[in-house]
Write a structure and sequence with these properties.
Layout lengths: L6 H7 L6 E8 L5 E5 L5 E3 L2 E5 L4 E2 L12 E7 L7 H5 L7 E8 L7 E14 L3 E8 L35 E4 L2 E2 L4 E3 L14 E4 L8 E8 L2 E4 L12 E5 L6 H8 L15 H5 L10
Parallel strand pairs: 2-4
Antiparallel strand pairs: 1-2, 1-7, 3-4, 5-6, 6-9, 7-8, 8-9, 10-16, 11-12, 12-15, 13-14, 13-16, 14-15
Amino acid sequence: MSKTISVALKAHYALGSTTIARCWRFERRDGEVVTVTTCARDLLINSEVYRSKEGLNPTAISQEATAAVANSEVNGAMAAESVDEEELFAGLWDGAFVSVFEVNYRDLSMGILALQSGNIGDVKAGRTAFNAEVRGLTQSLQKVVGRVFTKGCPWKFGDPDTCRFDVEALRVTGSITSVTSLRQFTDSSRTESDDYFGAGVLTMNSGQNEGFQMEVYAYASDVFTLHLPLPFNPAIGDTYSVTPGCRKRWEEDCKTKWNNGNNFGGFPLVPGSDKVLGLGGTEGTNL
């Protein structure tokens, strides 16, 4: 987003009293576009309606002429037409791309002043309000580039370019026979051994949670325990599909469980911290 400003809008900023409104354009991971503004009425900008959102309170934007990450925050009240609690907990807002700009709401022909563009970072939500951090584009420069040598395998299980294991061929379906909580339910028809689905991915195919995916934390005696709770209560009869998982260990998983040792991406013989911190070959002890 280019940070240019029209002569008319620049002159308006120079006045002692202005009619400036801040606007946000969010592009969520599912493709949904949400547009809101601090103005007391809806605004039509670039063929999109920016909804007036009461209780939307932006903070100052911190920016520097360096590679430092530009950060800001926005606080607001939950509302079905903009930010919904279930959507937040379902992760639909995680990493959403956001553009922030200001306009003169009494004369939109003056154009816009781009303030910031980036992605949604940390989101805190309660029953009635939320707080979202907006991180600038330079946040991408903070990511580690390159491989990290670890004992465990770094590949995504089933990735055709690295792991090369056809996990989709092992996908199975089933239905819930009893529910314990948002994180735990049972399918009494399952016959797989304990931990077969551990670290796998479960997709809900019906019910209120249809389409949502969750990683399996544990599987034992027909009981699935998820890493995170589902956004809605699962119900008996809800159907799902699930793929088995890999806990990225050389001996137990890649070699023994999946017979895929040739594509293991870890380094099982790399010395651990006990070797590094050991004294005189005692490996982690001070004796």
